[in-house]
Write a structure and sequence with these properties.
Radius of gyration: 17 Å
Strand content: under 5%
Shape: globular
Largest sheet: none
Number of strands: 0
Structural class: mainly alpha
Order of helices and strands: HHHHHHHHHH
Helix content: over 70%
Number of domains: 2
């Protein structure tokens, strides 16, 4: 019920902005989503991104960001069934983005890798073999298309950061990936919301964490 109330409020906010163009609305809502750590606010802004995808159904990036938001929310949710439900929706939105593009690009492969990693995170011991391979394959496909996409290295860094040292992870292993991502983020202008550029500030956060002693 609470989610439905938030969805209704989000709908009023989005659809009352008839005079605003697609990019203006998308950028405003995505920024609000990506810069808050409050779960209720995150859900509210994620609902708005879903509504944007419904209103501008022919825009691939609208579906891309709707999928991204659900993948992020799955990490913040504690209930395993709800996490998977978010990811079911994320996969559908990601598929819609690819359908509109008529092909995968490096960003959709990165998004697919992110969703696979989120699936694995729900139950790592049972899922690492299946979804770990999907994660790796999608990032390799993204790299083939654009080796300078910083989000690839950011996701690899996050994966290494949260992998125990005994299994080849840890701060020291993750740091080079984040540093590679940071250098590539500096080359992005971030001026066009339809050209994804998320992850820059989170990369800086992880660099700082990697440089701190355990």
């Amino acid at each position: 019920m609470k989610k439905m109330i938030l969805l209704g409020a989000a709908g009023l906010a989005v659809f009352s902005a008839q005079a605003q163009d697609f990019k203006t609305v998308e950028e405003k809502v995505f920024l609000a989503f990506d810069t808050t750590q409050d779960m209720n606010t995150k859900i509210e802004q994620g609902n708005k991104l879903t509504l944007i995808a419904k209103k501008w159904d022919g825009e691939w990036s609208a579906h891309y960001y709707a999928a991204y938001s659900k993948a992020v929310l799955s990490y913040m949710e504690k209930d395993a069934a709800k996490r998977d439900a978010y990811l079911d929706e994320a996969e559908k939105d990601a598929e819609d983005a690819v359908t509109l593009l008529k092909k995968n690009n490096d960003e959709t492969f990165v998004l697919a890798a992110m969703i696979a990693n989120a699936r694995m995170a729900v139950d790592p011991m049972q899922r690492w073999q299946k979804y770990g391979q999907i994660f790796t394959t999608d990032l390799e496909s993204a790299k083939d298309l654009n080796p300078d996409n910083p989000r690839m290295y950011y996701l690899q860094g996050v994966s290494k950061y949260f992998t125990p040292k005994a299994y080849g992870g840890g701060k020291a292993t993750a740091l080079p990936y984040f540093e590679k991502a940071a250098a590539l983020y500096d080359k992005e202008t971030g001026k066009d919301i339809t050209m994804p550029h998320w992850g820059k500030y989170k990369t800086q956060y992880f660099i700082a964490q990697c440089k701190q002693a355990d």
